[in-house]
Specification:
This protein is α+β, with helices and mostly antiparallel strands. The protein contains 25 helices and 24 strands.
């Protein structure tokens, strides 16, 4: 990977876009499909690279950044359960320095320099996260993590796991117990032997076996699988469990849950590391898979003060184990085409066992990576390219697909040829273009490319977009294949084109007149749709779910948004200045949104879609009694008593808009030390300026 210090903003923006798409796909593969396509090590490396780029170039952070994502949307096979308290992921530590940094960061946030802070350390179970909701001691619901906000309803399956009690005695009126479903090594081996004897496909590893067994539509299948459950956390509770993490875990054990006996209280970061070494030394003898050790602040009051970032708690971190290595032959390189047209090379490997798991695929990133170069032409792997037939070193950390780490040139076959990366799309034969500064080559076919068309249509009906009941990824693929739909607008003309007699649909396997009419009705229900969902559903590059909400909140209506995007094509116009002033919108994101409306074919596609819809305006803030409701605020300089993120979140809660730059539309500047040019511009424009203390009083926090 290119040294970040040698990169310009355009290159960083392009790499952040690539990382966002790759990690999004990886999350779906791992959390939703139980078929991971990245190793833990590769996934973690991409996440670290993304985070490093965002630290160096914070103004380019994307609203669909992997740093803001948790898990993946729930599968369409299951009902949905909204978590009363979000199920977040954990930040990662990869070496001792990261652990000391975690302690220092915690102390800095709390303003505690020398006071004692104790932590708990527990094995990080490599399984499937599960939340169990008890009401009056009775198990009422069980849900997977899903995307952190909404999980899959697996209640009937959870009830057949022997480690999960159906009733609790002396429990709070409401108690959500959280933990990990897993499978022991012995049980996994016996299950695979049974699978093979019955002619069924064996599972790749215990994690996949556990996830696949829990996520069954028939609870009888789940009951036949040897699943276990460790409890280690909680969600909503009607009464506190304890005052410390360790006491709470002990309380869960008293209620009848299995808790991990290796959990221990530690007084210092070095004690955490020492216990990590103890657990690491026992790893191969535990009888179940772990992929690290989780550290948590022990005092629950301090946990409350520390709170959360967008996707991770500040009071916990996972110290991951190192990767494992193996050598094998690269048999083929395949090219996959994604929603944005990105051509992604995938290595097909001669199956090899790495750390007890058989793997046969690896991601090769892009054409430069195959050539042994970074995006700036610098060497990686000593400049050794990757060729079909090579003996390659792969590594993994966990149980999934590895990364190609090295090539043994002494074992390279005679007359091998350098891999020629395709310059045309393998799906539609359109030119595959690599723009200057972009690490990825992309198909130029747009919606005429079947790979892009199907992925864009899948995106259009996804949960955060139109979320049409009965029209998921599987149905989209079939309808596209049959020629019934080729673009989003045609979803809304299905009834008019095929509703007469319903013959073409109801005669298909799995469809009848009732189910066909139900689908058409579900489509019609989504003709009225919130603005943010429409923007997200368009599938515009760089416009994720959060960015779409930002734009919707700023412009308020489809008409205003559309005119702004058209007007922003003028580089010197007010519309572009206004777009770039939105806090969280960078130049690359803005350019991508504007380009979607400037490109004739894309614009025509959007117009056809909008003609079928009634797009709902964004509701005005309900906090009309707030002193800042409806006003535009800018924060500048250093805030001492709260972080910038906390101040921004508070302002938005009160119904204000937060902008990244001062303009004539700014109502209030909150300026801390070092406000600089923004304070001067505010003074020139006559914008009211207050300090942090005044903001605390104004926002009702003082």
């Amino acid at each position: 990977m290119t040294d970040i210090k040698n990169m310009n903003e355009d290159a960083v923006s392009l790499e952040l876009a690539t990382l966002a798409e790759r990690l999004r796909c990886a999350n779906i593969a791992y959390h939703q499909n139980d078929e991971p396509d990245l190793s833990d090590a590769e996934y973690d490396q991409l996440k670290r690279r993304n985070a490093a780029l965002e630290v160096e170039f914070p103004q380019l952070m994307r609203d669909d950044s992997p740093s803001l994502q948790v898990g993946a949307p729930v599968s369409e096979k299951f009902g949905k359960i909204t978590h009363a308290v979000s199920m977040l992921s954990l930040g990662n530590a990869f070496d001792d320095a990261d652990v000391f940094e975690f302690d220092a960061r915690t102390r800095k946030f709390l303003g505690l320099s020398s006071e004692k802070i104790t932590y708990t350390a527990e094995p990080k179970i490599d399984g499937l996260s599960l939340s169990l909701r008890y009401e009056n001691g009775i198990l009422m619901q069980a849900a997977t993590r899903g995307d952190g906000a909404v999980g899959e309803d697996v209640t009937s399956n959870a009830r057949v796991i022997s480690d999960i009690p159906h009733r609790l005695t002396d429990a709070p009126e409401i108690l959500e117990v959280r933990g990990e479903v897993y499978m022991s090594h012995i049980d996994f081996a016996e299950l695979n032997a049974r699978q093979e004897s019955e002619g069924a496909k064996p599972f790749a590893n215990p994690r996949n076996a556990a996830a696949g067994s829990l996520r069954q539509l028939d609870s009888a299948v789940t009951k036949s699988r040897p699943l276990r459950f460790f409890a280690y956390a909680w969600g909503e509770v009607s009464a506190p469990l304890a005052t410390t993490q360790m006491q709470a875990i002990s309380g869960l054990k008293d209620l009848g849950f299995s808790t991990n006996p290796l959990t221990q209280v530690c007084d210092t970061p070095q004690d955490l590391i020492d216990h990590y070494r103890v657990i690491e030394a026992q790893r191969s003898e535990l009888g179940y898979d772990i992929d690290g050790v989780v550290y948590k602040v022990n005092d629950l009051a301090l946990q409350e003060r520390l709170g959360f970032r967008s996707t991770t708690p500040r009071w916990a971190i996972a110290h991951k184990f190192a990767a494992e290595l193996a050598w094998t032959r690269l048999e083929e390189i395949d090219i996959q085409v994604g929603r944005t047209g990105a051509l992604s090379p995938v290595a097909r490997l001669k199956p090899v066992t790495v750390g007890g798991v058989v793997v046969s695929n690896a991601t090769l990133h892009n054409e430069d990576y195959i050539r042994g170069l970074d995006s700036k032409g610098g060497e990686i792997r000593g400049g050794k390219d990757i060729r079909v037939g090579d003996l390659v070193q792969v590594y993994r950390a966990g149980d999934v697909i590895p990364k190609v780490a090295d090539v043994d040139l002494t074992k390279r076959i005679e007359n091998s040829e350098s891999y020629a990366f395709p310059t045309v799309c393998p799906q539609c034969n359109s030119p595959a273009i690599r723009e200057e500064g972009d690490a990825v080559r992309r198909c130029s076919g747009g919606m005429i490319c079947p790979a892009q068309a199907v992925e864009r249509l899948k995106h259009f009906v996804s949960r955060a977009a139109f979320d049409i009941e009965g029209l998921g990824a599987k149905q989209v693929e079939q309808f596209l294949k049959d020629g019934w739909i080729s673009e989003p607008s045609e979803i809304f003309t299905l009834r008019a084109r095929y509703g007469s007699g319903l013959q073409q649909l109801k005669n298909r396997e799995g469809w009848g007149e009732k189910s066909a009419n139900k689908l058409f009705d579900a489509i019609d229900e989504k003709r009225m749709i919130p603005l943010n969902r429409v923007i997200f559903a368009l599938g515009v590059r760089h416009l994720g779910e959060s960015a779409s909400k930002l734009l919707a909140q700023h412009y308020g209506s489809w008409g205003a948004f559309e005119q702004a995007m058209i007007g922003a094509s003028n580089p010197d116009g007010d519309a572009l200045i206004d777009l770039l002033s939105i806090d969280g919108v960078g130049a690359v994101m803005a350019a991508s949104a504007v380009q979607a409306f400037a490109e004739p074919r894309e614009r025509a596609l959007i117009d056809r879609l909008i003609s079928e819809l009634t797009v709902q305006d964004v509701a005005a803030p309900t906090t009309t009694d707030s002193a800042v409701a409806g006003k535009t605020l800018v924060f500048s300089g250093t805030l001492v008593k709260m972080t910038r993120a906390e101040a921004k979140a508070r302002a938005e809660t009160l119904g204000a808009k937060v902008s990244g730059s001062v303009s004539a539309k700014t109502d209030l500047l909150i300026a801390g030390p070092g406000a600089g040019s923004k304070a001067k511009k505010a003074a020139d424009l006559g914008v009211e300026t207050i300090d942090e203390d005044a903001w605390i009083v104004l926002s009702g926090q003082g």
